[in-house]
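Morning!

This is the sequence you dropped in the shared folder:
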Amino acid sequence: MKYLIIFFFSLSFGHLIDGKLDKEDINYIKQKKVINVCINPDWAPIEFREDGIPKGISIDILKIISKRIGLKLNFIYTDTWKKSQEYLKNGKCDITPTAIKTYKREKYAIFTKPYLNYDLAIITTQDKPYVTDISAIIDKSITRKKGSGLITKLKRLYPNIQILQANNFVEMFKLVADKKVYVTIAALPVFAYYKKRYNLYNLKIVGFTGWKYPLRIMVNKNETKLRNILDDELKLISPETTQKIYEKWIIQTKPEFNYKFFIIFGIILLIVSLWLFILYKKNKKLKELSEIKSKFLSNMSHELRTPLNSLMGFIQIIEKNPKECEKYLPLVKASAETILTEIDDILNFDRLQKKEIKLKNIEFTKQELKSLLSFCEFEAKKKGLKVDYKDDLPEFLYGDIDKIRDVLVHLIDNAIKFTKEGKIEIILKYENEKLFVSIKDTGIGIPQNRLKEIFKEFKQLDERINKKYQGLGVGLSISQKLVKILGGELKVKSEVNKGSEFYFEIPIKKVEKKEKKINIKGKILVAEDNKANQMFMQVLLKQLNINFDIAENGKIAFELYKNYHYPIILMDINMPVMDGIEATKKIREYEKQNNLKPSKIIAVTANAIDGDEERFLEAGMDGYIPKPIDIEKLKKLLN
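The structure's back. Tokens below.
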């Protein structure tokens, strides 16, 4: 809305002769020299004090008059409008620049003719209806600034009206903006100023009171001559000048930068952006996104905290009783692997949606599959469940152990979660070059008409079950997709209140394992900047009887390499000074220039995004192992 303010001036010429002061006025000014001014310290943009300096529309007009007639302005500090009026009444001030002429004030002051005149608007939030006049809001809660003469007028006209008195205009408008009060009343320029200055764009004018505020300069009763001079000078100020003053204080007002709002908004925007990128980059169900996000984040926290709680608990037990170390280490390892699985779920979900997951087959033992059962058995026993495990597997297999383990973790975790009493039966067997997996439970079961839905993202049986049985809501969806990538199909049989069986069959190879001893001539180089990871690598390599040097960044690694031709380099990717990619390129260039046999460079990184392996190979690396480091995988890469 374009706000208008009407300036009008007295038409009488008073003591002016051809626009100039007469001799009597000039003599008065010579004797007076200074006008003592008391202002309303909190009535922006009409008049106010900011950083101790008087400012506003009326102050600018007063300064024009002061310059014309040669009377200096001496602003006397007061902290309230009430005190300014008392100062004028007691003769400490000659004038106040803006005031309403009232019967009470006429007892101690005289007034110029009105020089500012504006409408009083009814202001509330954008969602409220428009009104025809003030009678439409007298039954609503209203707020006004303390000391306002309007409060007296309203109470006189409407004795039962509710008025909450605010300490200042900012508080007054924000009470309405925050919907703590229904409405307020304010002069047009005052509302325009505060709306822009404090970003109160959820407020609007819904009507007008029908009242106007004719503002005058209030003058001490003993200063009749001064009042007459001011009247004469006010009429000489052109409408163009007053319009420029208005634009200065309304149109050109700079909004206050709300740092808190932008920080909070930035954080929310970052979270939502990451969420959209990971889960729903091409989301077609925007209406469900907010609900899905909240549910996912809440469940993610729960799912990570559960194994983390066990992990921390086992560590504390081992700290107090080191002799129990051997007993609890498998559980510690299993808890850590579960946490890693949950993190992989979060990262892998988007990749699975885009079908970017690739098989990474390696040799592994049946013991690696069985190790996760220790943790599952521990969790089942906490609920009083029995775990039956049967396997008919060769000692050594060749396949994607990580994806198989992920599927097993999801299926066993679901079986435990949805089983109140009874048992969990786990069957693993190898037949006709295929691995058969079956997970049975005696849990709540699934209705036949809901069997297809359980494989959808963020779906469980219903909202009540979703609240009772926590989970990310992506486990079965991920498992189904992983089994398909592995060459099989995840199937389910279920009966309500009797239990469920999830099973699948995938092609896999059996291998004859020949124990290979790590045989490295000389030392290897470990490029790693993290102190804790350096310590871990030291302990691990000493156990493997491997000699090594450690470089804290890629630059040091390159300098060490020039002095000693390391057969193997374990190269961290993200390092200060020089990262692993740049260091690798420099080493490969150095090898070519000096006709050296290429060293085996293995990328060791916490980056867990598909496509990174190709990037590392393009940089000249020979292999890749993610953090946290799987010791068996590392041993295979070192051979």
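Headline: The first helix runs from residue 23 to 32.

More detail when I'm at my desk.
O.
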